[in-house]
Amino acid sequence: VDTSAGVLTGSASYLVRAVVLEKRSVREVAATHGVSNTWLYELVSRYRSGGDETLAPKSRRPLTSPTRIDR
In the list 19, 21, 22, 54, which could disulfide-bond 50, CB 3.0-4.6 Å? Predict the structure, then answer.
């Protein structure tokens, strides 16, 4: 399953573990795997707040659309 950042969920887990468990720097892991530092910091933050479940891709669809025209 692809995320919007182009990282597979399994890969996201691998990247986060490289930072959290192996104590590698976010900058090093991001550069090695071609993802942005910002995105990796976001993944690490999610992981620390809720574990592996939080690394699953999230919908970017808005909950409401105020300008939607009802038919």
Answer: 54
